[in-house]
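Cross-posted from the bioinformatics board.
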Amino acid sequence: MIRYKEYADELAQRIQAGHLKPGDRLPSIRAVKRQRGVSASTVFSAYYLLETQGYVEARNRSGYYVSAKMPLPGLAERPTPVAQAHALPLDFSTLACQMLAQAGQRNLVPMGSAFPSPELFPFDQLAMSMGRALRRMDPWQTVEDLSPGNPALRRQIAMRYGTLGMDLAPAELVVTSGAMEALNLALEVTTQPGDLVAIESPAFYGALQALERRGLRAVEVQTHPRTGVELASLRRVLDTHAVKACWFMPTFQNPMGCTMPDEAKAALVGLLTTRQIPLIEDDVYGELYHGPRHPPPAKAWDREGWVLHCGSFSKSLAPGYRIGWVAAGRFTARLARHKMMSSLATALPSQLAILDFLQKRSFERHLRALRHALARQQAAAIRAIGQYFPSATKVTQPQGGYFVWVELPADIDALAVHQQAGQQGIGTAPGHLFSADHRYSHHLRINHGYPGDLRSEASFKVLGEIVHRNRARSGT
Amino acid sequence: MIRYKEYADELAQRIQAGHLKPGDRLPSIRAVKRQRGVSASTVFSAYYLLETQGYVEARNRSGYYVSAKMPLPGLAERPTPVAQAHALPLDFSTLACQMLAQAGQRNLVPMGSAFPSPELFPFDQLAMSMGRALRRMDPWQTVEDLSPGNPALRRQIAMRYGTLGMDLAPAELVVTSGAMEALNLALEVTTQPGDLVAIESPAFYGALQALERRGLRAVEVQTHPRTGVELASLRRVLDTHAVKACWFMPTFQNPMGCTMPDEAKAALVGLLTTRQIPLIEDDVYGELYHGPRHPPPAKAWDREGWVLHCGSFSKSLAPGYRIGWVAAGRFTARLARHKMMSSLATALPSQLAILDFLQKRSFERHLRALRHALARQQAAAIRAIGQYFPSATKVTQPQGGYFVWVELPADIDALAVHQQAGQQGIGTAPGHLFSADHRYSHHLRINHGYPGDLRSEASFKVLGEIVHRNRARSGT
């Protein structure tokens, strides 16, 4: 039976070859179902994927049409950087803190922001859930629901993993003040200051900060812009370095958006289990998949408890409520104790409001709208980059999340672009942030998670002009 | 002019001497005012103090009467322990975590609990404040109010210090997930693993855990059960050890309840400022004073920013909301950055609900009722200990908070008492918890902060019997 992805590829090729032209209507779902003998959901998934990729557009009640603005063919993945596996001294965090401070500046076009638009979240419904939860709250819960957290909320979180086919015991879960606390606690129970931790290249700057804060050293592992951590590179690193833990984002990695294929995740967990090295899995974007399928986390293959899997509602449901969690495997008891010692408990009102929301409202309905908004916006961002940036620019096309990773021509200094864009009211995240040795000097992470922002298209134009100007300046 | 305290002492002496007898009515406030030429508030303060000390009882609408159950004269402070100033290896926290877990067992009489009764707090009013705050919340606050926290809440906190005559800038405040996070962050920005930190003896076990967690070493400073840290002892410790920070509770110390006199606080800050040693001031009980005066924190004398003053609403207004703060002096910028790196932000709903409560409701009215309940209960606890415990027992009589520190006869093992009491459904905090070398082996910290608990009187009787039995067993 034909799979949705193959059918989508087939149509994409026909569009690229000009056999289907802008404005052409795609066959109705019913027609394809009949002609190809596939299910309606397969056809729908294929059309949905093409829409997120920018090839087609949905028009209300009248079906799917080939888009007038097609994605540019040159915008494929950039070649894998040759990451060197050596220990890096870390001296970081000023630039990263400036970036986070930018998030609070409402007049800045938030392409550098680490967060999706706050307008994408159901705060009114959350407020109603909070109201009901607090009316029912038993004051004694303030002492009974200390770490590891409210038992009913932990059951709800475990149940969501159940829908992915994962059998996660609520007893393995510790509720935390967002994923950032979860990740820091995971680092704390698996390492000692001075230890070596393997990270991706490029890596989330929060990971670099966390390592710096704990006095750890980092070793970078080669990371493919589409398929994530390269296991051959990781194996070499583990053979030559006394790595005490790995901190990876196997799904919709920050900043590149890459996702390790299922088999690679399984192999990663197998490799680390054999060597008894803990994997700290940062999975804060997993719910934000653009296609029809939720990629399972690496934790799904964890049989012996070496994966400390960290998640959060901050990017999927309730920013600012600060509710995250960790399923810490064999480290659970120790981690719960460290949580208690470091911050005693997680805010009870936030826990209870989210619990009520999960029990009484449709998390799925909200998520579908959120994913769709992010996917459409990604397509628009990629088109705009193709239109306004130099032709040698490369951009990733992640299957989820709200970042794309842009590789500018090599002669461009992203920090200069960052500063000039800032002067024109546009925030950007320069590639320097994502490696301890600042090697990603001509890269930008672009946040496209602000679908309501009308300045978006114009800002891409301005940003493109700035990039062009920097190119001219450098004289090539 | 006569001061309220002198007048209270005068009356206490007359009661102890039998000149005023149980059931006697004290003169009316108006009468004393006229006879002695003092203000009504002086008389009221004196009567209030006598009430908290257990000498008199207020009867509705008819004034104050000498109590039938007077405090026993033998229950004064115990002698200062000879604390030795040497570095202690720390190996701790299992017992402490058991203790915290006990707090969640509702069937256990909570004399070992670290928390006051959740029934003492205005959760209904807080829920209403939360409702109003969330209806008005701007979604953009979720990114704008990242660390150091909501600006209006920081202004409100600073204003409360203003009522103490302290000029604290909102810019010096960082909102944290409870005081525990504040204290841990304070430790993080002032020390490196392996450093030596001066603590009280006995000390809050949370401090011992925090030091252990960060790989620090502790040196204990002699601490008086009524007047707190002894400056001569501290000076000796500083002369002979490379102390990198002090972690003290100068007001209503946990576990003893002692409070350093104002002059001693001023001298402490002066001493540490001269030596450029940071003082981490744990002031979570300051609002819970029993008498008429809020003892100013050591921070009030901080001119050069060496005091990192940590407070919280968890014990005074909103348990479970997890809102604390730190005024970190010269360490503020660094601490705000560490907060951002470790947990990004503090739960916004909790911040906004407390802000609304402070702006719209009477925090003072709630606090007056809370303080009064705790003071009355302290007097009852001290009477019960006097009645049921061996006569050689000594107990502190703190001017605030909800703990008393009980020194049992030296031949009694508090851990055995703790275990036997637990089997009879009574929680206790054995003295072992409060020193790294478990030296307080015949001491108990008793929580009397559960005024609604009808089991209280009976439990003191059972506890007294257990103590007597252990005495008999040890053959003395």
